[in-house]
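INFO batch 0412 | record 1 of 1 | parsing
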Amino acid sequence: MNGVFAFLLVQASLVFVQADFKAECDLVPADFVFLLDSSGSETTKGFKTQLAFISNFTSNFEVGADKAQFAAVTFSTGVHKNFYLNEHATQASVLDAINKIQYSDGETYTDLGLNFVRNNVLQANHGARPNVAKYVIVLTDGRSNDNSKTVQAAMALHNVPNVTVIAIGIGHAIDVNELHIIATDRNHSFVVNNFDLLHTLEVELVDKTCTLCGDYPADIAFLIDSSGSESGAQFDNERNFVSMVTNEFAINPNDTMVAVSQFATTSRTDILFNQYPDKDSLLNAIARIQWMNGESNTHTGLNELAHHVFQVKSHNIHHGHHGHQAVTYGPRSESAKIAIVLTDGRSLEPDQTIRAAHQLHNMGVEVFVIGMGHSVDFRELQQIATDRDHVYRISSTNDLAAIHTNIVDAICKLKVPPPTTTPMPTTTTTLPTTTVKQEIWVTLMRNENEIIQRLRYAKHSSPTRYVKYNACGQKPADIVFLLDASESEQAEGFGKEIQFVYNFARKFHIGPQNVQFSSVTFSSNVRNDFFLNTYSNRHDVLNAIQKISYMQGGTNTSFGLKFVRDNSFKPQNGARTNATKIVIVITDGQSADSAATKHEAQLLHHQGVLVYAVGVGSDVDSSELKAISSNGTPILVTDFSLLHDIQASLETAACHGGT
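INFO prediction complete | emitting tokens
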């Protein structure tokens, strides 16, 4: 059977659904080069362990010309190119190529490998992309034959723009100082005692190389539909959406700037680029935007963006007692220029609308369009947007919150510098010549049967791709993860636990008015990683999750439950009276005191907290997990590598837990 089984929580029961696991790092593009030691000291077994490691690493990334690309080179007495960056356009193809890499035996001429990567692999004709992050991952189990040449080759590689070198030393024969020199810095140098421990580095290596959002400046202009059909709650939803997306970015003159315009019968700009240079003042200004009312003259709004917002102009701004002052506002010369258009109907002047949209396209503005409701003209949406991948459709403005993370992720892909060189020369490698661009739809799956049908349909459909729906929207929820960090977890298992928590939190709009997260770890003792109000946005929460460390020790689950009950849901620690309170317990074994654990779980239930229990492996106590779980139905997976199978179902359960 293709795919993996995912649990789908439907009320109090579990339903099995077939679904594919998607690579989790799929945002900012990067070029990866594996430089593998194939010398005699590696042995065939050790070399195969290296291949398994880089295969597992690669599985975390989406592969493609605008996503991650991979290359592999082996070295021993000589150098062998296994495949260049532009030879494989899919993850499956890369993994197949890795599996075919042969062990060669010989000496350890690391310098030859480093020089080959610099002079050949990282060249444009072999797929290296300008202004894209490049990671060279060197794996070796010994000292190089010529240290001085290796040092020279490493220094030359460090001078290549956008290159980060990660050096992994395996075993006791390595030269640690040489390893530090090969790596970009000591934070990118790793040592494991033997090949069997390579897998313990996977999560950390993914964290170091998976860039969720580019750091190139972006000028983002929102164009809001302010026509007669968008009054009251509909307009509030549009305005809240603008705030939600804005809140995900760093607002300052060196990062992201935001402008907001509206259209109805006429158009109006409420906020210009750099008018509010910090997030607090910008969000306050967005909250003050008022509905205009009128007809749907979409073209007037698009012209407003082209002729005013994306132009550097002097504007007369009222400054209180100082009267009106002329101030220059507009986009920056070195920035990604992005427009997000919201509309709920057909434009009154379709020809003028298309002309205005094309003008924005010709100015280099990436135009996204969100069609809200059933009155939109889909062909018109496609012509307004830069391409079909920039088109989103939802059933109503109530669902804007659900897609805000999709919009943020799309913007993040654009927060990279534009190419500064001519297109790559054609190589002998055969790549697909056409790519079917898929229209992005957001399907609102509120009914469990529809979810099952959509998941099955999504595996076979072609032009339509169903984007993950964040069912929580703006419903407040306080979610605490209680994580087993005991000895039986081992570093690898705990790393997968953290990766699961990280991927889970990524899907939500995080903030004081929406979903808040906290994390507590337990073993022999309890450690609070962060409270619900420690971090107020997704970026900071994800960074904090990545920093959670393994503890080791016993399995005092009762201690963790008691800590959560006594501390995590206190108002001073961020708990809100209007929020659904949820605890997700992940453990791989029986607690040290089962009676105390069941008692603490019952006390937590009596506080109105919804508790979900996730048991990993064969050593869990099912009766204990049933007692921990609020509905008496724990979620079980056979090992940590399958945690991702239950992610979607647990998100659904958490979102709908209080409804």
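INFO post-check: The radius of gyration is 27 Å.
INFO record closed
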